[in-house]
Amino acid sequence: MASYNPPLTTSSQKIEDGVAALRAAQGSEFFWRRLHSLTGIIPIGVFLLEHILFSNATALNGPEAYANTVKFLGSLPLVTAIEAIGIWIPIAFHGLYGFYIWYRGDSNVGGAYPWTGNWMYTAQRWTGGIVFFYIGWHIWHLRFAGVDLHAHPGASFGKVQGELVIAWQLVFYIVGLVAAAWHFSYGLWLFCAKWGITVGERARSRFLAICLALFLLISGVGLVSLRTFLVSPRQPVDVSAGELRTAPAPAATAADKHSEGH
């Protein structure tokens, strides 16, 4: 009786860098995996880009600019509902389901698939774990603990400075920032590969270079913003700092305009 021999995988059938395409699974697993993949880009990825490249980067313009950004975000209608639906719940789902996928999977590093992509994929898992705990800690400390920045946005710059003057917290911020930048940037590459957006090895290689550049951009802007908090004069954190630091610039008087004309 002839035995069944599975076909050998040829080079043309090789899985590109350890990335398996999303495929139908039993029950609801396919749906949850799709949702997990999608939430990593929208809304979590969009929030990450806005938070690091725009909101936090306003610190480069000084404490007043940063406080006014916090004031604007805190004044959005239904801001708590927006945060819950658009940030906290998606992050909780993406993180917890990511741990479930990690628990069920096996690392390819050092095994039968010693590709660079598998090292990157393993880094994706570990950075995901780091980012999940970092975001939870970050949200608790800056959003809920201590002075309420929505009510007193003028204390926001000083509150961040207070976090960074503690050595281990500064290290945690740096590690969390770089991990978040990597997890999103390489996750974007995985998303496009799994969803069939980048088709072919050449397209995936080019897009990988773009994603690596995005990783450097997010990391660089984030680290420069952290440095700004560290080197700037220490700002007050008490609630009395609020209104003064978020007041609009005074209107120019007639005398000021006359002096500018000369």
Summarize the structure.
The protein is mainly α. Helices cover 65% and strands 0% of the residues.
Q: Overview of this structure, please?
A:
By secondary structure, the protein is mainly alpha-helical. 65% of the residues lie in helices and 0% in strands. It has helices at residues 29-39, 44-55, 63-74, 79-104, 116-144, 156-164, 167-194, 201-231, 242-246, 254-261. The longest helix has 31 residues, at 201-231. Residues 1-18, 108-114, 246-253 and 255-260 have low confidence and may be disordered.
Based on helices, strands and strand pairing, what is the structural class? mainly alpha
Number of domains: 1
Averaged pLDDT: 81
Could you name the CATH class?
Mainly Alpha
What about the largest sheet? none
- Assign the CATH superfamily: Fumarate reductase/succinate dehydrogenase, transmembrane subunit
| Helix count from the secondary structure assignment | 10
CATH architecture tag: Up-down Bundle
User: What is the CA-atom radius of gyration, in angstroms?
Assistant: 23 Å
Distance between the termini: 103 Å
User: What is the subunit arrangement here?
Assistant: single chain
Low-confidence stretches: 1-18, 108-114, 246-253, 255-260
Helix content: 55-70%
CATH topology: 3 helical TM bundles of succinate and fumarate reductases
Helix and strand sequence: HHHHHHHHHH
Q: Count every beta strand, where a strand is a DSSP E run of 2 or more residues.
A: 0
Query: So what's the overall shape?
Result: globular
Strand content: under 5%
